[in-house]
Amino acid sequence: MKRYIQDLSTCIGEEVTLQGWVYNKRESKALIFLILRDGSGIVQCIIAQDDIGENSFAEVSSLGLESSVRITGKVVEDTRQHGGVELHVNAVEVIQNVADYPISKKEHGIEFLMDNRHLWLRSRRQWAIMRVRNTIIFAIHRFFQKEGFVQMDAPIFTGNACEGTTDLFETDFYGRPAYLSQSGQLYGEAMAMAMGKIYTFGPTFRSEKSKTRRHLSEFWMIEPEMAYYDIFDNMDLIEDFIKAVVQAVLAENKDELEILERDVEALEKACGEFIRLNYDDAVAIIKGEKDVDGKTTIETLKADIADREAEKSELEADIEERQALLDKGGMKKGKVAYHQSTIDKNKQRIKQIEEDLRNLPQWIESAENFKYGSDFGGSDETVLTRMFDVPVMVYDWPHAVKAFYLKRNPEHPEFARGVDLLAPEGYGEIVGGGERETNEEWLKEKIIEHELPMSEFEWYLDLRRFGSVPHAGFGLGLERLVAWICKLSHVRETIPFPRMYGRLEP
Ligand code: 4AD
Ligand code: MG
Question: Which of the chain's termini has less CB crowding within 10 Å, N or C?
Answer without folding.
Answer: N
